[in-house]
Amino acid sequence: MLQRRYELRLERLELVARLEAQLAAVKALDAAEAVEFQQAMTPPDASVDDRTYAEMSVVEEIAGVLTISSAAAGALVEQSRRICSLPPVSEALSAGTMSWQHARIVADETESLTAEDAASLVAHFFDPAAPNAARGAAPGELVPSRFRAKVRGWRERHHPESIEKRHVKGVADRRMEYTPDKDGMAWVSLYLPGDTACAIWNRTTATARGLQCPGEERTLTQLRPDIAASLLLGAGNALGGESGAGPAGVTAIGKVPTSRADVLVTVPVFALLGLTDEPATLDGLGPIPTSMARKLVAGGAESFYRVLVDPRDGAPLEIGRKNYRLTPAIKRWIRLRDAQCTFPGCTNRTPDNETDHLQAWEHGGTTNVSNLAQLCRKHHRLKHHSQWIPDPATKDEPPGWTSPTGRHYNPEQQDSEPARWPQWLPTSFRGASERETSIGATEAADVCALEDIGFVEELGVPDDPGPLEGQLPADPFPEWNLFLDFVELEAPVLSC
Q1: Is the pLDDT of residue 124 over 60?
Q2: Which residues, 6+ apart, have CB-to-CB distance to 285 below 8 Å?
Q3: Mean pLDDT value across residues 329-358
Q4: Average confidence (pLDDT) over 77-89
Q5: DSSP secondary structure string for all residues of 205-248
Q6: pLDDT tens for residues 18-74?
Q7: In this predicted model, what pLDDT tens digit does every residue of 444-476 receive, in sequence order?
Q8: What is the DSSP string of 20-42?
C-alpha cells in the first residue's frame, strides 16, 4: 500500500510538470499575440514613437496582469516571440515534453543568430531526421543546465562570427566582482578566459584533495575557498581555518601533496595547423578558440592522443577479465565518452569522478569500456546501496538508467560533428565525412591522399592508418580529431 502511494505521488509530480509546461506554452502564445494584436490596431501611418509607446503600453499591461516588473514582462514578451517563431520548440512546450526553462534556453541562445542559423540549431535538437541530429536524451530529458551547455556548444561551433573574434571581445570584458550577501558573507566572482578559469579550479581542487586527511574536518567545498583566499591574500602561503588543517592547524600550500589532474582537450588537426577556424573543446568548459588550444599545446602538453588513443603503440581498451585495474587509455576513453557523471541529471564534471564497473567485477563484469562508466562519489555510493540500475554501455555511448520505480532515463551523449577540411583541398582528398554519411574504409584512402600532398609528416600519421576491426573502438570524433592529454595545466598566477 505504501509503495503504491509513493508511486502515485511520483506520477502526479510527472503530470504536474507536464501541465506546467503546457500552461507556459499558453502564456507565451498569449504574450506574443497580445503585442501582435496591439501592433495590428495601430494606424498604418503612426510614427515610430507612437508604435514604440503602444508596445510599451502592452508590456505594462502584461506586467500588471501577471503582477511582475516591467523588465520581467519585457523579457517574457521577447522570449515568447522567439519561442513562437520556432515551431518545433513551441510544439514541444505545448505537448509538455519539455519545460518553460528549456524553451527559454533556446530563446536566449538563438538571440544573436540569424533566422536560418536559429532554425538549424532547433532542427539539430528537435528533428531526429536532421543531418547529424543530436543523439541520446531528448531536450526535455536533460536537466536545464546540461541542455544549455549542449545548445551553447552548438551555437559556438556554428555562430556566424568566428569564436576567435568573440573571444577577443570577451577577454576585453574580464573582471572581478564583489557582491555582499547575508549572514556576514559575500561573493567574489572572476570572469576570465576559460583555460585560466579551468586551471584555477583544477589547482584548488587538487590542493583541497591533498589537504584531506583524518585530522581535517573541512569538506572539499569548504577547502576550495580557503585555499583561494590564502593564495590571494598571501599570509605566508599558509592555510588554516576554524577546524584546522592537520595536527598543527596550519599547512603551507606549497608543501601540500597534489595529484596530477588530467585536462582533456579535443582539437581538430587541421584547426591545430591553422588551416581551418573550427573551435576546439576543453573538458568541463566546452568550445574554445583554436588559438587557446595551440597555446595550451605550446605550454606543456606531455603527449598527443588521437581519439582512438594512439594507434602507433596499439594501446588496447578491451582487456577483458585479465585485469581489474584500469589502464590510462581506458580512463581517458571513458572520460571522453561520458564527459561527466552518467547518473540522470548529474552535472558533476570534475576529473575526480570515479570509473565504476556497471556489472560488478565479482559478478562476472569485465574491465572494458562497454562495462564502465563515470560516476561521482555520491551516485557511485547510491548505485551500490539502492535499486538504480544502469543499462549496458557501448564503446561510444554512456549507459542509460532505470529508477527503482521502473522509469527509464536515456543517456546524454556528446555532440560530435565531422571536422571541416580546408576549402582549397581538392574534393578527392577530403575526408569521408564530406563525401558520404558513414565513416569506414575510405579513411585509409584519405590518409594515402594526404601523403601525396605532404601532410603525413606534419600530422604524425603512422604507416598503418588504422587498427584492425575489433582491436580498438571507432573514433567518435570523425576525421583527424586529436585527443590531447594535459597532465598538469596551471595558469601562471597559480605558482607558489
Answers
A1: yes
A2: 194, 197, 198
A3: 83
A4: 95
A5: HHHHHHH--TT--S-HHHHHHHHHHHHHH-GGGEE--TT-SSTT
A6: 999 999 999 999 999 999 999 899 888 888 888 889 999 999 999 999 999 999 999
A7: 444 444 444 444 333 333 333 333 333 444 444
A8: HHHHHHHHHHHHHHHHHHHHHHS
Q: In one letter, which amino acid is 347?
A: T
Cα gap 295→311, rounded to integer Å: 25
- The answer to whether the CB of 369 falls within 8 A of the CB of 334 is yes
Contact in structure between 332 and 264 (CB atoms under 8 Å): yes
Q: What pairs with residue 390 in β-bridges?
A: 401
Query: In terms of pLDDT, which residue wins out, 16 or 43?
Result: 16
With cut-offs at 50, 70 and 90, classify the pLDDT of residue 410: very high
Instruction: Give the pLDDT confidence score for residue 112 in this predicted structure.
Output: 82
Cα angle 475, 265, 429 (rounded to 5 degrees) comes to: 45
The strand pairing partners of 288, in sequence order, are: 280
Is residue 261 within 8 A of residue 205, CB to CB? The reply is yes
Distance separating alpha carbons of residues 299 and 199, to the nearest angstrom: 13
Residue 268 in contact with residue 478, Cβ under 8 Å? no
Cβ-based neighbours of 447, under 8 Å, separated by 6 or more: 456, 461, 465
Residue with cell 567518435: 476
Q: In terms of C-beta density within 10 A (0-12 exposed, 13-18 middle, 19 or more buried), how is residue 293 classed?
A: buried
Go through the chain and tell me how many residues it has.
496
Burial 5-34 (b: 16+ CB within 10 A, else e): eeeeeeeeeeeeebeebbebbebbbebbeb
Angle, vertex CA 430, rays to CA 428 and CA 434, nearest 5: 105
Among residues 422, 436, 427, which one has the least CA distance to residue 478? Answer: 436
Cα gap 218→202, rounded to integer Å: 18
| Residue that is written with C-alpha cell 541529471 in the block | 345
Residues 253/238, Cβ–Cβ less than 8 Å: yes
* Residue 297 near residue 340 (C-beta atoms within 8 A): no
* Helix, strand, coil content of the chain in percent (nearest 5): 45, 10, 40
pLDDT at 470: 37
Q: What is the mean pLDDT of the chain?
A: 76
What's this model's pTM, rounded to 2 decimal places? Answer: 0.69
Task: Write the DSSP symbol of residue 411.
Answer: P
Nearest Cα residue to 282 out of 291, 297, 295, 293:
293
| 214: phi then psi, degrees, rounded to nearest 5 | -55, -30
Give 234-260 pLDDT, tens digit per residue: 754 555 555 444 434 445 555 555 555
Backbone phi, then psi, for 96, in 5-degree steps? 80, 15
Indicate the angle between helix axes 290-298 and 163-172, nearest 10 degrees. 80
Residue 162 to residue 160: CA distance in whole angstroms: 6
Task: Give the pLDDT of residue 174.
Answer: 94
